[in-house]
Amino acid sequence: MNSILTFRTSSRARRVAIVIRSSSEVEVRMPRGVSEREGRRFVEAKRGWIEGALLKLARLEKKHEGGLSIPTNSRKDLEKYRTQASELATSRLEIFNTTYGFTYGKISIRNTKSRWGSCSKKGNLNFNYRIVFLPPHLADYLVVHELCHLGEFNHSQKFWNLVGQTIPDFKERRKELRRVKFA
After folding, report:
1. Are residues 55 and 80 in the same domain?
2. What is the rounded CA–CA span in Å between residue 2 and residue 134?
3. Burial class (CB in 10 A: 0-12, 13-18, 19+), 86
4. pLDDT tens figures, 124-174
5. Domain co-membership, 58 together with 79
6. Final residue of a domain: which of 63, 97, 113?
7. Is 0.85 surpassed by the pTM of this model?
């Protein structure tokens, strides 16, 4: 393992955890009272898993070299990109909603680990801040997808017909978006 290994004590940590930051950086988070020595033993016990995760991430980074780069899950990045993501989502919603005419509530920008967006029963739309890193055609698909849930709160054929009104190639875009992984 040729990665930088850092140890961090956290008052919020309940157990020792390994966080893969990039293909060259591994962080070990430990609750207070756990020594670095214990942390190193934990890393040694998980060496195989860590090496596999680093290899997988290195492949992903290489695949997206010079292209799509999705940052890690951090509060700092959320705060840095929240405004930009909100402006993007709001402006695209306004454009696409001229076709649909749906009424929506709040637009929230979140730092979710595995979702790009969601729509609540109250009509609030939530988007992952990482939307700003998507190519425009995928960001548009994401916005339309969540917007159409205001008309059909499911993934029925009626829902996909709504999406298809403004994104006729939604199947291809959906597949492409599913291939994008958070680092």
Report:
1. no
2. 30
3. middle
4. 999 999 998 888 899 999 999 999 999 999 999 999 999 999 999 999 999
5. no
6. 63
7. no
